[in-house]
Amino acid sequence: MSLSPDFAFTQGSLQDFADCARRFELRFIRRMRYPALETQEPLQFEKRMRQGARFHKLVQQHLLGVPAEALAASLKDDAELSGWWQNYLAQGLSGLPAQRFSEITLQTQLCGRRLVAKYDLLALEAGGVAIIVDWKTGARVPAQSSLRGRMQTIVYRYVLAQAGAHLYGGESIPPERIRMDYVYVAQGAERLSFAYSAAQMGEDEALLSEMITAIERAESFPLTDDERRCRFCSYRSLCDRGGAGRLEDFDLDEYEDEDEDEAFMLDFDQIAEIEF
């Protein structure tokens, strides 16, 4: 069994492969949905996931022109979400260019496959910076070093550099003008930023090409040696890897990143693409 001909890679699928090749196989090749609980507190987990999804929808509505006051009025039933919203309004858009694209998807080609990125927000300045913004609703801010190597950081910047020209009227975006900001709205809209460069883009392309090629050629997909990754994997019972982990140890932002889109469910007719 191998990848379907129309399969497209996303940061989520590549992160799955980086974390555990077996999970990639089960999810994207065998397309299995196994109903194991992610955590020991499933109701609280579901609540936090709903809050995160609701926050992203609120931001999208706000950026489309819905008044902030009207949106805030809908949050009287959720004090925690209301706090995130106030942090977003106070600092979330600080210093961003005025031209903004919310919930936009771009794609490029790499190793004969589509590489797709879905952005919470792109903020652009003609002839100037292009800032990727990703909203995070998790309870803690990770170390910047850990985010630097995440597939989301790598894929999002790379795809924008390759496929963002049409957003600038056909002008390509030099890597040095690209920046990615993670904004943690549960932590006062604290911002972790990552610049880009031509040299980094070259390294990223080499890494992504190596990963895609390895997946295409793989004859087996072994389990990860790091069993800590199994505590929140819904396939763990298939692998005989133990019970669910505690919600307090779970990185909800990381889970959202992996689950935000599934390549085989995307409608490619609705995605902007650059041809080589």
Structural topology:
Layout: E1 8-10, H1 11-19, H2 21-29, H3 42-63, H4 68-73, H5 79-92, E2 99-110, E3 113-124, E4 130-136, H6 144-148, H7 151-163, E5 178-184, E6 190-195, H8 198-217, H9 252-259, E7 272-273
Structure, described:
With 276 residues, the chain is α/β, with parallel strands linked by helices. The protein has helices at 11-19, 21-29, 42-63, 68-73, 79-92, 144-148, 151-163, 198-217, 252-259, and strands at residues 8-10, 99-110, 113-124, 130-136, 178-184, 190-195, 272-273. It is built from nine helices and seven strands.
| Number of distinct beta strands | 7
Give the fraction of residues assigned to helices: 25-40%
CATH topology group: Lambda Exonuclease, Chain A
The helix count comes to 9
Q: What is the strand content?
A: 15-25%
Global outline:
globular
- CATH architecture annotation name: Alpha-Beta Complex
**SSE topology string:** EHHHHHEEEHHEEHHE
CATH class designation: Alpha Beta
The gist of it:
The protein is α/β, with parallel strands linked by helices and 276 residues long. It has a single domain (8-45, 96-273), classed as Lambda Exonuclease, Chain A. Helix content is 38%, strand content 18%.
